[in-house]
Design brief:
single chain, 9-stranded parallel β-sheet, 18 strands
């Protein structure tokens, strides 16, 4: 086989979709990228731009230049996330791999598919493409996966191990894409720091809420049930309107009265009260924050409307609601989800989240298949010095930290003040718009607040006149959505969950055995008995315990009750270098002790919260 054939054979590892898209762009040919010969008669990738030939490696000794580049970077830290900008001819990537020991992850983002096509034809890349710890993203092929892949690989624990490598001349030719790449990296780091703070502070509440919600989930419906009901109808051309609670909503909220069923109106929880007070019917509300102020739902009129909830939403919402409830699956619900899936054949469904209910509302419109999404009340800034629409719960409104304020461009071109958190939501929307390019059009009809780049700006009245010209009976469609279980299956499922404390007790025994195994390992290390049969047996036992951490579906739920211990140990492991076996084992004891504590708390909570609620459910 020639170079191209070997490369393409290796490329299949990235999946059929990637390969088919690669073939499609390859057939289009290249217009500005080519190879040129170096002084020592080797080939390098070159590109013509503005009458000048830009080379992506040295014209003299490209192998030596790649070696020097990697040498200057030095050995990478264990578990580092290495974000490489550009692939060039593969020489630098190969040298960077020599600085790794297998614990690292490489994310290669090539901003121009023509460079990749030329590299595939002329340079051996199969050794790079076949490495499972290397993740390749190519603009024009799978660029939509870049943010998701970074989000998957970057965590709170490894946030200080994220580093970038910009290949020669990529910063000069692809400045905007490079800045966007770095911005995505920073966004993921900040997101995981925010999530960690939330989980440590509210992890126990999240888990408690799941236990409170479970009986309502068994009696209710899933996000997938709602989707299946809507998919039966032609919604093409009908927009979804996402109503958020920014201060600009005061300007145009009354105009929503004329919409009726000509759009699918999704209201975030913070805007429910304002809509109710104006006598405006919405089709569905959404609340996913496990810490939300219950005062937002005290108006009995809100209880008459369907809602989308997370399995960890505050329990007061489900208790009060008199309409249809549709649940989505959050992190920590995996074990429950697996049991539900075994009975129904599918999970609840999961929304992409950017950390706020507004981003979840947008994802809901996306998930349900709407191709036009109109945003209103999405200020993402302190418009007029206010934080929220009139009528918002006073205990939540107008709180802001002056030290965290930044300036952003407003829809009118003027600079507005916002905070770091709201600005991260703005960036999430911009990434979501890029992700949906060619599939969905996003309209910003907020008429104030921060500019969301990529969204079509217009007034709400213009949006209604231009986009809302066909009706569907959405209330009837929502009511037609199936329940998650028929009564017989619901009772059977309730009985299974009723015995969950017994399952957790067995899990606790396994964790306890893991602690003993680590303690035995510490003892054997201190006695220098590494060559004994007992040492090998305990190593094998510990391997099984580590698999439990990765494979046990309820482990994330247990970790909700032990977040502080988990983060402390994990961060300690990532920060340390050259740990001895004994030091690793000592950290293993501490981590499993945290899990044991979390399991004890979980058993108590199941007996306190879940079993009393399910006693009635089990009887039908």
């Amino acid at each position: 086989m020639n170079i191209l054939e070997r490369n393409e054979q290796a490329l299949h590892r990235l999946g059929e979709k990637f390969f088919l898209r690669y073939q499609s762009v390859k057939e289009c040919g290249v217009t500005h990228c080519f190879v040129t010969e170096t002084v020592d008669h080797q080939e390098i990738v070159c590109q013509q731009r503005d009458g000048y030939n830009w080379r992506f490696n040295s014209i003299y000794e490209p192998e030596l230049a790649a070696e020097k580049y990697a040498k200057n970077r030095g050995k990478f830290n264990d578990y580092a996330i290495i974000c490489v900008f550009g692939i060039s001819d593969g020489r630098v990537i190969r040298r960077l791999c020599e600085n790794c020991n297998g614990t690292q992850k490489l994310v290669i983002y090539e901003p121009d598919h023509e460079n990749f096509i030329v590299a595939m034809e002329h340079f051996p890349l199969e050794d790079i493409l076949e490495r499972e710890w290397i993740h390749l993203i190519v603009e024009g092929i799978n660029e939509g996966h870049l943010h998701g892949r970074l989000d998957e690989l970057i965590s709170y624990e490894n946030r200080n191990l994220v580093t970038e490598c910009v290949l020669p001349n990529y910063d000069a030719l692809y400045l905007a894409q490079g800045q966007d790449y770095i911005e995505k990296m920073l966004y993921c780091v900040k997101k995981h720091v925010f999530n960690m703070n939330t989980e440590v502070a509210f992890g126990e509440r999240l888990a408690d809420n799941m236990l409170h919600s479970l009986p309502h989930i068994l009696r209710g419906s899933s996000l997938n049930n709602l989707k299946s009901a809507i998919e039966k109808y032609d919604i093409s051309g009908i927009p979804a309107i996402v109503v958020s609670a920014g201060p600009s909503l005061d300007k145009n909220i009354k105009q929503l009265k004329s919409v009726g069923n000509k759009a699918f109106i999704i209201s975030v929880d913070s805007a429910l009260k304002a809509l109710i007070c104006e006598g405006i019917d919405f089709h569905i509300g959404i609340s996913v924050d496990p810490r939300k102020n219950p005062a937002l739902f005290e108006d009995e009129r809100i209880a008459r409307y369907p809602l989308v909830l997370s399995a960890n939403s505050i329990p007061a919402i489900a208790r009060r609601n008199q309409s249809r409830l549709f649940f989505e699956s959050p992190v920590g619900f995996e074990g429950f989800e697996e049991m539900l899936k075994a009975k129904t054949g599918e999970g609840l469904g999961e929304l992409k989240t950017g950390g706020s209910v507004a981003t979840d509302a947008f994802s809901l419109a996306e998930y349900l298949g709407f191709e036009k999404i109109i945003l209103i009340g999405q200020d993402l800034a302190y418009t007029g010095g206010k934080t929220h629409v009139s009528g918002f719960a006073e205990s939540e409104a107008n709180k802001r930290d002056e030290d965290s304020l930044v300036e952003v461009e407003g829809m009118d071109g003027a600079m507005l003040r916002t905070d770091i958190q709201m600005d991260s939501y703005r960036k999430w929307f911009e990434l979501a718009i890029k992700r949906n390019q060619g599939k969905r059009t996003v309209y910003n009809a907020t008429e104030g607040g921060a500019r969301i780049h990529g969204a079509v700006e217009l007034t709400l009245q213009e949006a209604i006149e231009q986009l809302c010209d066909r009706e569907l009976d959405f209330p009837a469609i929502i009511q037609s959505a199936p329940k998650l279980f028929i009564e017989e299956d619901r009772i059977a499922m309730s009985r299974e969950f009723y015995a969950l404390d017994c399952y957790f007790a067995r899990l606790k025994d396994q964790i306890g055995a893991g602690i003993e195994a680590y303690q035995t390992l510490i003892y054997l290390e201190e006695k220098n008995e590494q060559s004994t049969k007992e040492y090998q047996e305990v190593i094998q036992e510990i391997g099984g315990i580590n698999e439990l951490d990765e494979q046990e579906p309820y482990m994330n739920f247990i970790k909700c009750y032990a977040k502080q211990e988990e983060y402390e140990v994990a961060e300690d492991i990532y920060a340390a270098s050259d740990l001895t076996v004994k030091e690793i084992a000592e950290r293993g004891v501490k981590l499993l002790a945290g899990y044991e504590k979390g399991t004890n708390i979980a058993i108590g909570k199941i007996q306190e919260i879940l079993k009393p609620a399910l006693e009635k459910e089990c009887s039908g």
